[in-house]
Amino acid sequence: MKYMIIVMSLLFVMACTNSEEKKNVDSRTYKVYAKDRGDQSWILYVPIYMDDTKFYSKSRTEYKLDHDKDLPKLSKIVCDELQTIRGALPFQDYFKQYAGYVDNGRIYVYVNLFSYYQVNKECTPELPRTIIFLTDGDYNWGCMIIDYEAGKVVKYKFNE
């Protein structure tokens, strides 16, 4: 009798979490791809992570980037670096978020790269104002740290 109750309970739980319900959740969102939107680069003036953690801290203070002056230079550095990374997507296939900061007296730029983001179908696909992380185990998300004064990438990581 105990086994019958356990089996019935499991069947009930499985019925409540069937794949049809998962399909409905997935069908309410869609992906917006960078390669379909043209060059999408922007400076995050008040960068925060998706969990509302602030990007700047006591050891990492803000450095204001200028869109017209800094973005072309930074974009070239990122584009050149992507061409050397095996498996990385082309420059135009990424959204790029830039945030300048000072750490131990040196100016750095954090560059967040992601190839798509999820949007609820009822919403207009606005550009994200938070630092986006994708954990799909591919080159769809990565980040770079640029030494601003040296004009070169000092560190990069992809969630390959």
Notable features of this structure?
single chain; 8 strands; alpha+beta; 6-stranded mixed sheet; two-stranded antiparallel ribbon; 25% helix; globular
Number of helices: 3
Silhouette: globular
- Low-pLDDT stretches: 1-25
Compute the gyration radius: what is it?
21 Å
Percent helix, as a range, is 25-40%
Mean pLDDT: 76
Profile the largest sheet.
Answer: 6 strands, mixed
Task: Assign the structural class, choosing from mainly alpha, mainly beta, alpha/beta, alpha+beta, or little secondary structure.
Answer: alpha+beta
Query: What's the β-strand tally?
Result: 8
Description:
By secondary structure, the protein is an alpha+beta fold. It is 25% helix and 30% strand. The protein is built from three helices and eight strands, in the order ααβββαβββββ. Strands 2, 3, 4, 5, 7 and 8 form a six-stranded mixed beta sheet that branches. The longest helix is centred in the middle third of the chain and has 16 residues, at 67-82. It starts with a helix and ends with a strand. The model is unreliable at 1-25 (pLDDT under 50).
In short:
The chain is of the alpha+beta class. It has helices spanning 2-16, 19-27, 67-82, and strands at residues 29-33, 40-43, 61-62, 95-103, 106-114, 116-120, 141-147, 152-158. A hairpin with a 4-residue loop joins β7 (141-147) and β8.
